[in-house]
Design goal:
This protein starts with 8 loop residues before the first helix and ends in a 24-residue tail after the last helix. It is α+β, with helices and mostly antiparallel strands. Helix 1 packs antiparallel against helix 4. The chain is built from 17 helices and 18 strands. It has an 8-stranded antiparallel sheet with strand order 14-11-13-12-16-17-15-18, sandwiched between helices. The radius of gyration is 22 Å and the shape is globular. 31% of the residues lie in helices and 22% in strands. Among the domains are: 99 residues, Uridine Diphospho-n-acetylenolpyruvylglucosamine Reductase, domain 2; 111 residues, Uridine Diphospho-n-acetylenolpyruvylglucosamine Reductase, domain 3 (2-Layer Sandwich), CATH 3.30.465.10. A hairpin with a 2-residue loop joins strand 5 and strand 6.
């Protein structure tokens, strides 16, 4: 499947007129500022991708307000031969939502209805913020089975992107049972919402809308727990690492155990629970395990800084997980740091070796489903430096995912096979489904 060429002006004009008739003038725009805003995500978090920007600019932007309108808009774009790039809240970090072939950006953020909450499940439209789903579930005594690290991300973006999210201690990543059913739009010229469940639904997870655009989703809920935000600190990072895995195994399992070096801690938003010069450890802990967690932390020489309750605390701590602490580090010294996603017991057992791989190496680490996971930051020099460091990390027993690329890298072969039927003209998010692409750090070992 090849990258679609820019659509001709006549096709764009015809599509513009049709979309205005369908959605109303307020939900369609060809204004340059609107097109530019819709053509960027958080790709500047990657200095490697930043060197390549801009990757593309939309010719049109449309904001459907219902799942059914998503189908109608995609069908219209296909009839006119215009590429379609789906977009949620724009919280992705690596260019997956950038319209590399121009065309139409389909901004789903206004299609945000919660359709129904049932026993163990919730159905909502693709633009619904994840925090809205969590609140709707809580009203029925339930919670999301998988809570995002970016709570304002949209449901469709969370599922279609490369996200994992807090909750991974208990359940693994979001392709391991979170998705129950999807209503998907294919690029065949039909406005039909295709309903898929179970294994069939997994074909449309983590592929950036290249095989079909998620218009509505049903995801798993579980019984509501009473959470506490536990803030602790240690004199150094090694102390926090010493308890990470034990805290991650406490019953009931925590939603999050997250730790940062003193250097990263110093760049986080100001909080009395982040004392200067100390390493921060944070937990979203079940209220029933707070006493046990306190004993573990204090027994290892740590100090409890605060224990807080309320939904806002859970949201705040989630927003200080995954790659968010590295983003704060990057803001402290713009243009200096890059990061790679890492996993494995070596993050705890060989931390000095891990830090030494990259100049200025600093690790954000979390208790994972099976092994510690994290983000390793370093001072950026070149794509080759990143590639060579990945090889060195692999030699230490560290699993690495190189995030500095926009190509689908989850079940790529399956997605290509699916797209042959669901996107025969190659109009869905062109440029993101290339079997020969190996990224700006070509040759890196994953």
């Amino acid at each position: 499947m090849t990258l679609s060429t820019a659509p001709p002006p006549t096709a764009l004009a015809a599509l513009d007129a049709e979309l205005v008739a369908l959605l109303g003038a307020r939900n369609v725009s060809g204004d340059l500022r609107a097109r530019e805003r819709a053509s960027v995500d958080g790709a500047r978090m990657s200095p490697i991708i930043t060197e390549l920007l801009p990757l593309g600019v939309a010719d049109l932007v449309a904001w459907p307000t219902t799942a059914e309108d998503v189908g109608r808009v995609v069908a219209a774009a296909v009839r006119h031969g215009v590429p379609v790039t789906p977009r949620g809240k724009g919280t992705g970090n690596y260019g997956q939502a950038i319209p590399m072939a121009g065309g139409l950006v389909l901004d789903l953020s206004r299609a945000r209805a919660v359709v129904e909450v049932g026993d163990g499940w919730i159905t909502a439209e693709a633009g619904t913020p994840m925090v809205t789903l969590e609140r709707a579930a809580a009203e029925t005594g339930q919670q999301l089975w998988m809570y995002p690290s970016t709570a304002q991300s949209s449901l469709g973006g969370f599922l279609g992107g490369g996200s994992g999210g807090t909750g991974t201690i208990a359940h693994g990543s979001n392709d391991m049972g979170f998705v129950l059913a999807l209503d998907v739009v294919h690029a065949t010229g039909s406005a039909e919402l295709v309903h898929v469940e179970g294994d069939e639904a997994q074909r449309f997870v983590h592929n950036y809308g290249t095989a079909g655009i998620i218009a509505r989703a049903t995801v798993r809920l579980e019984p509501l727990q009473e959470w506490r935000g536990l803030y602790a600190s240690f004199p150094d990072f090694r102390g926090a690492l010493s308890v990470l895995r034990e805290l991650g195994r406490l019953e009931p399992l925590p939603r999050l155990v997250s730790a940062d070096t003193p250097e990263i801690t110093a760049t986080l938003p100001a909080d009395p629970a982040f004392p200067a010069g100390r390493s921060s450890l944070r937990m979203i802990a079940d209220v029933r395990s707070v006493e046990a967690a306190t004993a573990v932390i204090e027994g290892a020489g740590g100090r409890i800084e605060d224990v807080r309750d309320g939904a806002q605390v859970v949201l705040t701590l989630s927003m200080l997980s995954y790659n968010h602490p590295i983003e704060w580090l990057q803001k402290s010294r713009p243009g200096v740091y890059f990061h790679v996603e890492v996993s494995g017991d070596a993050l705890v057992e060989r931390i000095d070796d891990v830090h030494a791989v990259y100049e200025g190496g600093l690790l954000h680490v979390e208790a994972g489903h099976t092994v510690p996971i994290g983000m390793l930051a370093g001072v950026y020099r070149s794509p080759e430096q990143v590639r060579d460091g990945i090889r060195a990390l692999n030699a230490l027993g560290v699993g690495v995912h190189d995030p500095h690329q926009w190509n689908v890298d989850f079940e790529l072969g399956r997605t290509i096979e699916t797209a042959r039927t669901t996107d025969p003209l190659g109009l869905l998010n062109p440029g993101k489904l290339n079997p020969d692409y190996d990224g700006p750090t070509k040759g890196a070992i994953r």
